[in-house]
Amino acid sequence: MEILVDAKEWEVLSSYAIIDYAVSNGFKSIIKINKTKSGNLYDKSSDGLLILTSEYGKENFHLTNKKNILTMAGMLAHFHNCTEGFIQPQGIKTKVYWGKRAEKYRMLTSKLEKFKSEIKDKENLTPFEEYVMPYIDELLVRAKNSQKVFKSKEYLKLLEESMKKREVCINSASSSTAVVRCGKPLIVKVFDMGYNLCIEDLALLIKHSIEDSKDKNVYKDILKRYRSIRKVDSNLDKIIKAYVSFPYYSLKTIKKYMECKKDDEFYIDKLKRAYSLEKISNIMEADNS
Q1: Model's pTM, two decimal places?
Q2: Among 196, 183, 210, 194, which residue's Cα sits nearest to residue 75?
Q3: CA 223 from chain center: how many Å?
Q4: Which UniProt keywords apply (predicted)?
Q5: Confidence band of 285 (pLDDT split at 50, 70, 90)
Q6: 3-class DSSP assignment, residue 175
Q7: By C-alpha distance, which of 240, 241, 269 is closest to 256?
Q8: Which of 96, 170, 257, 272 stands 20 to 30 A from 124 (CA)?
Q9: CA-CA distance, 267 to 232, in Å (whole number)?
């Protein structure tokens, strides 16, 4: 079937190369990009790029139950094994994410500190600012605890090792990453793939699984399943927890509000949802008590 994709030409070429490498190493749970009638990997239309791929369903592979979560964990480990060592073909650009998420989190932490400074002595708070006040210190503690880990020697060493191994990630591990095909997950979100720390993918899966299933205990189950297929040193648990526990969506909502300073009720509602979910996925809590 032919589908319209939200991707640039070079992203299609890069994804095709990674998929081809993964499949050649035995990974099958991913869409393939086939050549079109014109002999290209995509056709252009007025709406964007069209790619040709096999038929697949539209039902997302949801991370709301343990069976699906563990299936996804195993598939992710297999993908990481099959893509490690990928060398981008000559003339093809591959996305590079090493260290970018940690830097994004650092910038969000700085934004929250700035927000706190702006409103701490303010006389007339907006409804959103008033709502956020009781949560600011807690969110800052969580964010800074993660930042300490991202500045550690262990994290920097992990980055270096990942670069040497040329690890490749999906850079997406949520209920929209894959669809159901024959009862199993098929990865369809492929245009963000690129070089990165594999444990970032793993941490994203853990975060989304905890928040979707409302079960903090799936953390250990996911690690056990992933480790049964791909080696992850036990001393990396602290780094994984730092990714999972960072209150990304809460801080992102506050940042968005700072940029517009309006639609208070909309942002209050958005922050309520983000905060309640990220309260569940704070798995560094036990370490900091």
Answers
A1: 0.93
A2: 183
A3: 16
A4: Capsid protein, Virion
A5: low
A6: coil
A7: 269
A8: 272
A9: 38
Label residue 115 exposed, middle or buried (CB < 10 Å: 0-12, 13-18, 19+).
buried
Alpha helices in 25-152 (DSSP H): 66-83, 100-119, 127-132, 136-150
Alpha-carbon torsion (170, 284, 287, 148), positive or negative: positive
Task: List, for residues 192-220, the tens digit of each pLDDT value.
Answer: 999 999 999 999 999 999 999 999 999 99
Structure tokens that stand for 282 in this block: 């704070």
| Number of residues in the chain | 289
Q: Quote the Cα angle for 241-254-265, to 5°.
A: 125
The first and second tokens of residue 280, run together, are 């569940």
Q: Which two tokens stand for residue 129?
A: 């600012």
Which three-class secondary structure state does DSSP give residue 213?
helix
Q: Among all chains, which residue has been given the structure tokens 């245009």?
A: 191
Pure H helices in the chain? 9-24, 66-83, 100-119, 127-132, 136-150, 153-165, 198-213, 218-227, 237-245, 248-260, 264-280, 285-288
What count of other Cβ atoms lies within 10 Å of the Cβ of residue 216?
18
In the chain the first and final C-alpha atoms are separated, in Å, by: 53
> Which residues, 6 or more positions from 208, have their beta carbon under 8 angstroms from its beta carbon?
63, 173, 174, 175
Q: Is 49 helix (H, G, I), strand (E, B) or coil?
A: strand
